[in-house]
Amino acid sequence: MNVTKLEMFYYKSAFLKKCQMIELMAICVIWVAVAMETKKLKLNLSDLEAKNEQLTLEKRDLQNQTEDLRMNMTKLQNQNEQLRNNSDKLNKILAAIISYTNFPADLFCPDGVCKTCPKDWIQFQESCYFFYNLGSPWKTWDQSRQLCQSMKSDLVVISIVNVYIFHFNLQTFVKNTIQYYYENNQGYWIGLQKVNNIWIWVDGSPDTLGYWQNPGSSENFAYIIQNADLNQSWIQFRNSFRNRFICEIKALIF
Q: For the segment 217-245, what is each residue's pLDDT rounded down to a tens digit?
C-alpha cells in the first residue's frame, strides 16, 4: 500500500498533536499534584505556625511563672530571715525579762512593743533614769520615793559598786541632765537616807562615798545639786523639804 507524502504529513501531524495532548495532560496532572501538595504544605505550615505560636505563648507563660516563683522564693527567704531575726530578738527580750524579779510590762511595753527604757526615761549604761523636772509644788523625799515606786523603780543609787562609772561618766551625765531651778540649794532627791545614824541607800547598801557639802548635819535625807563639785554635791536635809528627784530602773537590754 502506497502512502503519499501528504498522508505521511497528516499522520505525522496527528501523532505530534496527540503527543502534545498527552504531554499537556501529563503537565496538568503534575500541576494539579503540585498544587495539591503545595496546598497541603501550606496547611501544614499554617498548622505548624499556629503550634509554634502556642508553644511560644506557653513558653512565655512558663517564664512568667518561673519569675513569679523566683520572686515568691526570694520573698519567702526574706520573710524567713525576718522571722529568724524576730525570734532571736524575742529570745533576747525574754532572757532580759526573766532577769527581772517582777518585770513591769506596762512600763516597758505599753503598746506591745518593748523598749530599752520607758517613755520619757533616759538610758545610761545599764539603767534608765527619770528626771522629775516639773514645776512646783515639788516633792518631799518620801513623796519622791513613792512616785518612783509607783513606776516600778526607786530613787537613784550612787554606790561604791558604780563609783568609777559615776566618776568618769555619770558625773557628766547628771551634770548635763539635771537643771538649775529656783535657787542654788534646790536639787534632786537621791536614794540615800540615814538609818540608825548610818547613811543607807534604798537598795540596802551603806554609803561609802560621802560626797557631802554639809557633812555632820543632823538631817536624815540627801539630794544632789547642780552647781557644785561632784565630791561636794550632796546635801543633807529634812524629809519635808521639797525638791525634784531622780528615779532609776534597770534597763531592758536585749
A: 999 999 999 888 878 899 999 999 999 99
- Cβ-based neighbour number of residue 231 at 10 Å: 13
User: Which residues in the chain land under pLDDT 70?
Assistant: 1-3, 5-12, 14-16, 87-88, 90-99, 160-172
Longest Cα–Cα distance of the chain, Å, equals 176
Cell numbers given for 150: 509607783
Backbone φ and ψ of 101, nearest 5°: -70, -45
Q: What is the DSSP letter of 113?
A: -
Contact between residue 154 and residue 146 where contact means Cβ atoms under 8 Å apart = no
For residue 221, the SS3 value is strand
Q: Where are the alpha helices (DSSP H) in the chain?
A: 5-98, 105-108, 141-150, 163-165, 171-177
3-state secondary structure of 207: coil
Output the nine-digit C-alpha cell for 84. Answer: 529568724
